[in-house]
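3.2 Worked example (two chains)
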Amino acid sequence: MKTVLIIDDNHEYREAFREILEEHDVEVFESDCPDAAYELLHTIEAPDLIVCDLHMPFTMKEDAGEFVESREVGIKTAQELAWVYPNSTVVALTASDPADMPQVKSDLSPIPAYQKPIGYKDLLALVHCFLVCKDYGGLQ
């Protein structure tokens, strides 16, 4: 069974994501902040896919002062996870203004970033592409 870790401070989003993925035989773990995600990752095997929201409250304790905006917390988290879990695919989702997406993608490169909200069909396509066919080209 494939596994996905969702890191997002929005409970409703995580719940909807979980329900959709579990319908398709994906085991879902979830966390509402980076600190809780790291704690969870110490108790489970590395997930196949990690989906990280970029706009989260400052939750990195003593490091909070080094971030100008909440998006930077998500960017740092996604980059660290990609480095620490090289066999897991890390994907970022963001509610950033569409005009900011080129900068977001540049900041995250080579981690893919996608615009929220993400619809049911797009979510399934994203998971399929990253877990099954490893083909990222068709998603924007």
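3.2.1 Second chain
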Amino acid sequence: MRARTKYTTALVLVAAGIAGLVLQSVVPPSELAKKGVRTLGEVLFKDSRPGADGSFTYLVTFVYPDASQRNHQVTRVVPDKGTWDRLKAGQEVKVLYMPDRPDEASIAGAEGLARPHAAAYAFVSWTAIVAGVVLAVLTLRSNEAAAKDAGPASPKITRGNRT
């Protein structure tokens, strides 16, 4: 593969990665994120359930008071294990709920507020950016090594025309 093709591929990878990150921020938030009312709640407990394919589903159950001070208990899936690990029973959390449907609520990082597959899209975007930069650097080094191996160019001897 020629150096120009490698540089073009690197540029396309970096541009695609940046475009992916930009598009991810453009994805509209859920109705709950836009119209939800904020309050404080408490994590009651966490649970993880094995799936048929060997993966796990991470759940968090929390309770919060609505505007009329009526308590609501909600269980939500947390798609990111790291976020789930940081939650502890008895921990105070910020809750968003719909005022007309108080049982529709969520916390940061859980279903309802998290954009679908946001972590996967970010991973793919950053991978494209890193791969593009690595490809460009390797191509640059390869070209420099080839230039050193070639040594100095031999002088060209030209003879003038005799008329």
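3.3 Remarks
The mean pLDDT is 86.
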